[in-house]
Amino acid sequence: MEAEVLIRQSGFFISAITTISLALLSIEFISDYRLSFFPFSFIIILYLAGLYLRNRFWRKAWKGDRKTLFRYSYIIIWIFGIALIALFLYFGNSQTVVYPLSHYAFNLYLLLIALIWTVYSFFEIYMINQISALARYKNANYLAIAAIILVDLSFLVMNRFVYLLPISLVLLSASTIVSGIRVEKIY
User: What does the pLDDT look like over 67-91, one tens digit per residue?
Assistant: First the structure.
């Protein structure tokens, strides 16, 4: 039983580790303006593992309840998740010169990535609220919404305050952990 619960939550926890890794990578990038893709390759593996396990969770939720909404989430996680990684890899591959992080404020690719991610994140918050009562987690939605807004805002104000990105990623990681905890007793 404990193994089932851990598998159910693991996609969220791995996503939180991925987000913390991105925060650490962005701090390293801010401090010396160089970007090593060696740690980034591990982040991609973690991202794909988290995506797969979250997808399994939503699929199990759909099979257990047969709500059409859960089926949509099961499908949307793949579409949005793969679109995000493909767009980010395309953006990263197109960078022949690496600039300071502040240079990437208002970058069209990063704004498109943020838009796709924001739509999916709000959809997932809605889905988690459908299966988990907020009685014990009254501030969970506020934490998630604050994290989403700060991540999006960081892409806009990177040229003014570059440290908003790692701060918002740490907040997002905390929000993802809370989401993983909320789905403990589900299905």
Answer: 666 677 778 888 888 998 898 888 8
Contact 114, 155 (CB under 8 A): yes
Q: How far is the C-alpha of 8 from the C-alpha of 15, rounded, in Å? A: 13
* pLDDT tens track for 114-161: 888 888 888 888 888 777 766 677 788 888 889 989 988 888 887 788
Tell me which amino acid residue 10 is: S
> Encoding tokens for residue 15?
């996503």
How many Cα atoms are found within 13 Å in the side-chain-facing hemisphere of 121?
Answer: 24
Phi-psi region of 105 (alpha: psi -120 to 50; beta: other; left: phi over 0): beta
| Secondary structure of residue 93 in the 3-state scheme | helix
| Alpha-carbon distances of 127 from 39, 55, 67, 121, rounded to whole Å | 32, 13, 11, 10
d(CA 29, CA 158): 13
On whether the CB atoms of residues 24 and 56 are closer than 8 A, the answer is: no
